[in-house]
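S.,

Sequence below, as promised.
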Amino acid sequence: MKIGFMGVQGTGKSTIVNKLVEEGFCSSDQVAPSIGRTMKEKGFPINESGNDETQLLALQITCNQMYEPYNIYPRTFLDGLVYSKYLFEKGQVAESVLKSWEDLTARHMKDFDVLFYIKPEFDLVADGDRSMNVEFRDRAAEIMDEYINKFGWKYIQLTGDVESRMATVHKSLGTHARSPSRWGRTGGSTRRGRSDPAPACGHRR
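The prediction came back faster than expected:
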């Protein structure tokens, strides 16, 4: 089972995922690692400073994660697509890179069994990696809504404080959340029953 969280920076995706781990509904090794943090550690510019190289690496990592034995994704393809579109609008990313994100997002978002969506409700809080640029956050949120409406993915919206959001998560996941062993740990899309090695995810030329 693959569970994805959609939302721009600072909306509380990681908070909910961390609560699931703390409560024992999943283990930390079932959670896909932070892509932005990984890239920052490698010395790549992130957030609104991104460029072609940044977004292509993010795309490769995102593709690879879909074929790893993770069940919880604090970030989905949509996040990378949204930031690529923002950077494209700013002239920092080529149209070919944006197109690659659009194509792979359309293909792989269907692999998630459950999608949770969190819209901005609170002020940004610095965490050392997150951009504190409100214009960046707000435009990214608009782009995210545009793509969700365009592709028509079904999602469950999380609102309110952490307790309210967790109540919705528990209700939505039902017995799946209470029985992590039923989720399966094979790589690839559990929906399609695939365990293929990760594909090469190059961009269009």
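The radius of gyration is 16 Å.

Coffee later?
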